[in-house]
Specification:
Blueprint (H helix, E strand, L loop, with lengths): L6 E9 L3 E8 L5 E8 L5 H16 L8 E7 L4 E7 L6 H7 L12
Antiparallel strand pairs: 1-2, 2-3, 3-5, 4-5
């Protein structure tokens, strides 16, 4: 089972009201992942349930064009639900849309 001690944080990728996403390296083999830390202590029961449902949904999806789920665990020290996902080195779809915002369409090779 994974824990935060198995990962080295490389940098912060994004912040939200209840979670932060980090680029991390698994110490054992050097693989790069995205680690989402959901601060459970600040969530209502319904929001905690939604966080667990997010894990269930991510774990159930297997598609080459959707970020893949790798693992999830609870970190007692930070009271966070930690979700390990595939790292998208080229950014996400929202960033791509913003980059091409002034064009009329996405070129097929970009899609």
């Amino acid at each position: 089972m994974s824990s935060l001690k198995h990962f080295q944080t490389i940098k912060l990728l994004g912040k939200g009201s209840y979670s932060n996403v980090y680029k991390v390296r698994r110490i054992k083999n050097g693989d790069i992942y995205a680690l989402k830390k959901v601060k459970l202590g600040k969530l209502t029961c319904k929001e905690k349930e939604n966080s667990l449902n997010e894990v269930r949904i991510l774990a159930s999806i297997n598609h080459p064009y959707i970020i893949s789920y790798k693992d999830a665990f609870y970190d007692k020290g930070s009271s966070c639900l930690c979700i390990i996902m595939e790292y998208a080195g080229s950014g996400d779809m929202l960033n791509k849309i913003k980059e091409i915002k002034n064009r009329k369409y996405f070129p097929e090779n970009i899609i």
